[in-house]
Amino acid sequence: MRIILFLFVILTSCKSLQQNDSKSLDKWHLEESLNGIALEKWYKENFKEPNNQIIVATLDTQIDLNHEDLKSQIWVNKKEIPNNGIDDDNNGYIDDINGWNFLGTKSGNYIVWANFEYVRFIRKWQSTFEGKKKEDIEKKDLYNFWLYDWAVRMFEYNIKSYEFKQKSYDYDISIYSKARDTLKYYFPKEDYDYNQLASLYNKIKGKDNRTYHDMLMNNDNDFLALVYSFYSNYASNIIGLETLLDKKIQTDSILNKNLNLAYNERIFIDDNPDTLEVGYGHHNINLKINGIRSINTHNTEVSSVIASIRSNNKGIDGFSNNIKIMPLTISASGDEHDKDIANAIYYAVDNGAKVINMSFGKEFSLHKDWVFDAIKYAEKKKVLLVHCSGNNSKNIDKYHYYPNDVAYNKLPEVTNNFINVGSVSKRTDSTMVTPFSNYGKNNVDIFAPGEEIYVAIPDNKYKYDSGTSLAAPMVSGTAALIWLYYPNLTVAEVKNIILESGVTIDKMVIKPGTKDEMVHFSELCKTGKILNTYNAMKMAEEVSKRKK
Q1: Residue 46 has what pLDDT?
Q2: Alpha helix locations (H) across 254-367?
Q3: CA–CA gap between residue 23 and residue 88 (Å, rounded)
Q4: According to the model, what pLDDT value does residue 48 have?
Q5: What does DSSP assign to residue 410?
Q6: Which one of 140, 381, 398, 414 has the largest count of C-beta atoms within 10 Å of its C-beta?
């Protein structure tokens, strides 16, 4: 997951906020206007709480189990006795009280950095394809050769990209103190923001045409270079020396681990990722170890969208207090292993999850058949899977993005229990589609709010964040709410209700990844719609009545 969140992330436009301000904050995504899902409209008309509960599994990072707005919403495996070192329910997982950490190491730690999948793909096929041309390859190997060539190009591009980032952080850190002291002349209280820095930069720039790259290569530390360093970092929400130093550490780790062909994180787990079996990892999904980077933010955010406690005068409101989260840790900073994805799906299904949220993705899949088989298993057990479309501004009809319900080189669809979700903002003009969102007329089903969403983060804090990772749980929460009130519906019916009840967008919009290229919204996803929970609940009521 390009924790991504990475987290790198890909989650963009983030602003931290304090919890005591939370109830006065904009919860636009829950309202009826501004592309919201109209959840609050439905609650205003429906006061009856269901007696049943429903489990939503989140295949993601670790999670803050003790967060004030989530701790009562975590699934508990009542068949397991805590911390007795015995697999009481004989499901193959010892002491799995709240879920499972598939990235837990033999020593009791956890994986933070993992290879990108294209790095693993190169490592697997390098001895077969390196130095060869298309005409040297047997017909049966041509598809993998094409993928290998693509992986190598991605690898080389990203090595150069992160090496440049590494140099830029070194440069910005080296001039930070001088830049900060210089800016005190204009801002004695150091209370500047991005707009003020941009204004100052444009005022003093004059006819100086140097780019940031020019300043970096020359190690410039004149007044304009100092201001531009702060200005450019503020544009990327990099504020303060501590943040800069952390970005430097992350970039070093990406180069030395995520992008390192010689690095293999699975040796710490003592597991073979090319053999589909269980018996690895551990039960601790909320580990914090001194000296090791915490990796429990992303799942906390995602789960809070789905199941934060409603009406507790804290934080945010989820879809229902009767939703319980089953956290399954498969995501580190890097890409998920297909083995972990498949095993987590099997675990979720076998332990009662009705909805599986998958807010992660990758461009390659070494064992996609394992994942397809797990998705098919979930379909047989009437479980819905919801996946984010990704944050690369790409058309995933053309550019592979996994996991998915399509085998790009085979048949078009594997199952009918999979929903792929893109991201929209609260803007209602031609810029309504979030610029980073992936799209696809065939492989993205629907769009949902995913930009500037107020979410919970570890240590009882909250902030705004953005990403298709937050659009997917909008759909997962809606599916869970439907089943809470109308448990007689099938997985295919719930999927169809969510897709058919969406609001049709009949307008031209800017295509993600472009400055101003206009396309009709219907070209960006299969339905041409955005999620509307109110409509979905009304349609579910009618479908359920007809069945009875």
Answers
A1: 86
A2: 266-269, 297-307, 338-350
A3: 42
A4: 84
A5: S
A6: 414
